[in-house]
Amino acid sequence: MNASTSRTAGALSVALxxxxxxxxxxxxxxxxxxxxxxNVARLNFNYFGYYLGRGxxxxxxxxxxxxxxxxxxTDVDDLFDYFGSAEQYYMEKFGRNGPNGxxxxxxxxxxxxxxxxxxxxxFNPQDGYAAAAxxxxxxxxxxxxVTGYQGLVGFTAGWVAPDVVGHELAHILIxxxxxxxxxxxxxxxxxxxxxxxxxxxSGALHEGLADFFGEAFEVWVTGSTDWETATGVDGTLLPRRxxxxxxxxxxMHTTGGGRATxx
Length: 263
Ligand SMILES: [Zn+2]
Prior knowledge:
By secondary structure, this protein is α/β, with parallel strands linked by helices. The chain has one domain (24-250). Helices cover 33% and strands 12% of the residues. The protein has helices at 3-21, 24-27, 75-94, 141-147, 162-175, 200-222, and strands spanning 29-34, 45-47, 50-52, 54-55, 115-122, 133-136, 152-156. Helix 5 packs across helix 6. It is globular. It starts with a helix and ends in a 41-residue tail after the last helix. The structure holds zinc ion (ZN). Zinc ion (ZN) binds at residues 167, 171, 207, 210.
């Protein structure tokens, strides 16, 4: 190999390396809204020099300062990063472009498909502290145009943890089973969307699958799983509640009062 060829090969290596390091995570559109000042979603909002929320190509926010709902919280940056990790996870493991298969979380009715929207550091605007983490998803196009919800995940302050994030994103994945990549719908003979209805036994499957995907995402992020949900949650504002997937009856059920069983 002469010097000229070597230089060409070197340039090609650099070009390939650049290509390889342009990951989907850098390309996706992330919006993490911050409720630290109350029930108003803030995005890239300057509050005496500290920026609440993070979207687009904005830099990391760092720990939230005194006066915020959970001082020292890194929920905003954590969720921003987990969104990027999740895009890579879905693409590498399943060849799927995000939980909705179209590059993000939304239905695409009101917003583009590619948005990854999250709410952090607040009370659940509708349920107070009843939900530590939740998914908002319209059940049909008409509802989405009334509520404006296009597919988003929300977390009470301190509850942005890998398995909790993976759990909520899996709800979006399951909801999205009615949505074809080309935008058409999978519809049952009775006109309903092909998905798991969130009630009764299909609702239990919804939760069980989400718990499993939560632990799988925990492995993707941390390299291992303890098979317990809500690992690493900061219980300062809302005490950690969890389910034990390897021994369900060992933990009192978090919502119903009985012991969790799988049937
Ligand atoms: Zn759930």
